[in-house]
Amino acid sequence: MKTFTPFLLLLVIYFANFSLAKEICLETTGKTRGQHVGCFEDHENQRMFRGFLAHYNQANSIEACVNTCHSRHFVYAGAQNGHGCYCGNSHPLEDYHARVSDKKCDKKCPGHSTENCGGYGFVSVHETGIEQFLISGKGKRLEDSNTISDMKWKISA
To answer: Where is the WSC domain positioned along the sequence (predicted)?
Structure first.
């Protein structure tokens, strides 16, 4: 009778896990582009969104920020302090970034003076219309975006 060597056993385990691998997929969905999620506290040393940053000195608006993040395939757009536009895929986790009154996001957008583009230390978060989900190695949808966001935060915290 043949026995498994440790190397062969590791090889079997590796390929078993490989076939069960999960992938994150992004797609444009029927979600309303620009849907307001809320106003959240942000911290310079622990940014809420780290995927992309743009500064629009005179042209920032919710629409401009959402379109910027959507075109780069991010799930969320966040306007901060009037001029900043941040993009990311993780829903703000309130243990790190507390949801606050929308009154804290009171800085007017320079590109649309009737809109508020966050505040100093506060981000006005909006959906971009992109949805994030996990699929199995066999192409089956596994999770929705909120579950993925929670998992990312638990792993990176």
So the answer is: 33-129
Number of domains in the chain: 1
Specify whether the CB–CB gap between 91 and 139 falls below 8 A: no
**Can you read off the two tokens belonging to residue 57?**
């000195």
> Contact, 142 vs 131, CB < 8 A?
no
Residue 60 lies in a domain: yes
104 pLDDT tier (thresholds 50, 70, 90): very high
Among residues 32, 119, 13, 126, the alpha carbon closest in space to that of 74 is found at 126
Burial of 90 (0-12, 13-18, 19+ CB in 10 A): buried
**pLDDT value for 141:** 60
> Residue 25 domain-assigned?
no
Q: 155 falls in which pLDDT band (50, 70, 90)?
A: very low
The model's confidence at residue 139, banded by pLDDT at 50, 70 and 90, is low
Cα 49 from Cα 78, distance rounded (Å):
8
In a domain, 70, yes or no: yes
Examine residue 47 and state whether it is found in any structural domain, yes or no: yes
Residue 143 has pLDDT above 50, yes or no: yes
